[in-house]
Amino acid sequence: DSVDMVGKMDRDFMSADWSHMLQDFELHLGSERNMIDQHFS
Questions:
Q1: Has residue 28 got a pLDDT over 80?
Q2: Looking at the predicted structure, is the pLDDT value of residue 1 above 80?
Q3: Whose CA is closest to 12, among 28, 27, 4?
Q4: 3-state SS track over the chain
Q5: Cα dihedral 28/33/36/41 (nearest 10)
Q6: Which residues in 21-38 are b (16+ Cβ under 10 Å) and which e?
Q7: How far is residue 24's CA from residue 36's CA, in Å, rounded to a whole number?
Q8: What global pTM score does this model have?
Q9: Residues 41, 36: Cα–Cα separation, whole Å
C-alpha cells in the first residue's frame, strides 16, 4: 500500500517537473523570438 503511494507521488513529481521544464522552454523560446523580432524590425 505504501509502495503504491510512493509510486504515485513519484509520478506526480515527474509530471510536475516535466511541465515546469516545458514552461521554461516555452518562455525561453518566447524571449528568443522577441529578440529576433526586435532585431529585424
A1: yes
A2: no
A3: 4
A4: CHHHHHHHHHHHHHHHHHHHHHHHHHHHHHHHHHHHHHHHC
A5: -140
A6: eeeeeeeeeeeeeeeeee
A7: 18
A8: 0.46
A9: 8
24: cell is: 521554461
Cell matching residue 29: 523560446
Q: Which long-range contacts (CB under 8 A, 24 or more apart) does 21-29 make?
A: none
Q: How many angstroms separate the CA atoms of 10 and 3, rounded?
A: 10
Pick left, alpha or beta for residue 30 (phi over 0 → left; psi -120 to 50 → alpha; otherwise beta): alpha
